[in-house]
Amino acid sequence: MKTKTMQSIQRSNYSNIYHLLMSNDKLSKQMIADELGLSLPTVTGNLNQLIDQELIMKNGQLESKIGRRATAYSVNPNAFLSIGIEVFQKYATITVINLKHEVLAIHTVNIPFANNEQYATALADQVRWLLQNNGYNEKSILGAGIGIQGLIDGAGTTVLWGKILGCTGMRADLFSQFLPFPVRFYHDADCVAAAEYAVEPNDEIVLSIGEHFGSAIITDGKILRSTKGRDGTMEHISINPRNGRPCYCGRRGCIETYCSLSSLLQPTETLNSFFTNLKQHNPAVEQRFSEYLDYLAESIYNLHMFIDVPIIIGGRLSKFITASILEDLRGRLKSISVFPESEQYVKVGHVADNAVAIGAAIPFIDDKLKSI
C-alpha cells in the first residue's frame, strides 16, 4: 500500500510540474518549487525525467537583479502533433497543430469527395505530403480527426447519417488503413465548438455558420455527445414546419434553411462580395440581410430559451460580424425577449478560418495532455 501511495505521489508531482509549465511561458526550478510546494530535489528529478522524454526543454535563462540567472524551463509544444481535416464536396483542408493548439501547417487540396478507397488513398497521400514537406515525424502524430457534415457515432468510427456528402455508413478505418496513426470522425459543428473552447473555455452554445448551419452544446467543459450523434443538431429545429423552406433533411422550415450562408447568399455571391455590397448600402442587399438577422435572432432566442448559456456565433460568418452588426442583432433579440436580460449573451467567436479542421485535431491533443 505504501509503495502504491508513493508511486501515486510521484506521478502527481510529475503531472503537476508538466501542466504548470504548460500554463506558463518559462519557469525556473525555484518558481516551480514555490508554486507547487515541492522540494528542489523533487522538482529537479521530475524535470530531468520530463527532459529525457522530450516533453520539456531548457529555454534560456530568466532575468535576475541579483546573483546568477536561473535556468528557464518550458514545455516542448511540438513533442506531439495532431492532424485535423475538414472534407467538402470539392476539396479538403488539412491542418497540423501542436500540444498548445498552435496551428503549424494548413494545406487545402482539390479532391472531389467520394465514399471509397480511391478518395481515402488520395487524402492520405496529401496528409503524408504535408508531414514530409514540413519535416514532421509520423511517429509524433497522435492521430487524425476528420470533421464531417453528418451525425457520428459515439466512438467516432462511423458516419450514422451524412446526407450532404452522401457518406452515410462511411467508417474511419477506410482512412486509417492508409495512415500509421488512429483516425476518428467528428461532427463538423463539434469541431468548431472545440476550436472555440480552446481559445476561451466556457460553457456555451456554439453556432457554426458556414455554407450550412450547425450547432454544438458545451456543458461542464465537455461537448455534449450521444451514441446517436444527435446532440446539438439544432439546425433541424423547425421554425415553420408547414409552409417553410424545404430542407435537405426532408422537412420544412428548419433553422438551416433560414440561417445558413446558403440561405443568405445568391448563387453568384461570395461572403466578400455580399458584405462589400452591404457596406456600400446596396438597398436589396441591406433588405436581405435585415431579413436574415430577423431569422437569426428568432433562432438564437429559441435556443436561449432551452439553455441559458452564452451563444457564440462561429464559423465563416463570424469573420464578417462587425460591432455594429452585433449590436443590431442584440437589439433584435432584446425586442423579442420575454424575460429581462442582464447580460449580452450573444458573442462572436474567435476562430473564423479553418475552425472545423483545427477543432478536429484538438481531441487527440487533449487526450494526450490528460494522460501526462
UniProtKB/TrEMBL annotation:
Keyword Signal: no
Biological process per Gene Ontology, one example term: D-xylose metabolic process
Any Pfam family hit: ROK
Gene3D superfamilies hit by this protein: 3.30.420.40, Winged helix-like DNA-binding domain superfamily/Winged helix DNA-binding domain (1.10.10.10)
Entries under InterPro entries matching the protein: ATPase_NBD (IPR043129), ROK (IPR000600), WH-like_DNA-bd_sf (IPR036388), WH_DNA-bd_sf (IPR036390)
Statement: the UniProt record of this protein carries the keyword Glycoprotein: no
Similarity comment: family membership: Belongs to the ROK (NagC/XylR) family.
Function: Transcriptional repressor of xylose-utilizing enzymes.
Entry-linked PANTHER family: ROK (REPRESSOR, ORF, KINASE) FAMILY, TRANSCRIPTIONAL REGULATOR, XYLR-RELATED
Protein name: ROK family protein
